[in-house]
Amino acid sequence: ELRRRLTQGATLVFVSAGYPGKRFIFERAAALGVKSVILDHPDSWSRGLVSEGLVARFLPVDMSRGSDEVYRQSESLIRQLGSDGVTGRVDGITTFVELSVPLAARLCEAFGLPGYRPEAVDAARDKHRTRAALRAAGLPTPRNALVRNEAELED
User: Are residues 84 and 151 both part of a single domain?
Assistant: First the structure.
């Protein structure tokens, strides 16, 4: 009951809907009274969830574009939420699609919402940066080197 009261009417943006097997997430969110908004490629299977009443809005973004363009388009669409008579201002942004974590982190930061720091996400997704962060924190890390080209293999 507490969960339902806390989420009732909240507007939550999901960055990418994943595959159709993730439908249960949107069903559960709807049952909790969440106004779900899906930000995904225009051809996503999840687009039809709006007409089924499971999600409040579908925001089409061509995810095949460059990351800066995808970010700008996503931010612009999210800023329009709350003025559509369907959703409120965004209360949270999340994803369960690993490839969408960097975008979700940047959007959370832009909207002042809790989430992973973009710098932490970038470091976690780059082995060299992860190892450098571990070493800087005094934690054990295997000996390693960043090789940018074939000539550096000789060194």
Answer: no
Domain membership of residue 149 as a residue range:
125-155
28 phi/psi in degrees, rounded to 5: -65, -40
70 with 104: CB under 8 angstroms?
A: no
pLDDT digits (tens, 9 = 90+) for 114-134: 999 999 999 888 888 889 889
Domain count of the chain? 2
Element containing residue 36 per DSSP (H, E):
strand 35-40
Same domain (yes/no): 108, 131: no
Strand partners, 15: 39
Starting from the edge strand earliest in sequence, which strands make up the sheet with 35-40, in order? 57-60, 35-40, 11-15, 92-94
**Top-ranked range on mean pLDDT: pick from 96-100, 121-125, 145-149:** 96-100
Greatest alpha-carbon pair distance for the chain in Å reads: 63
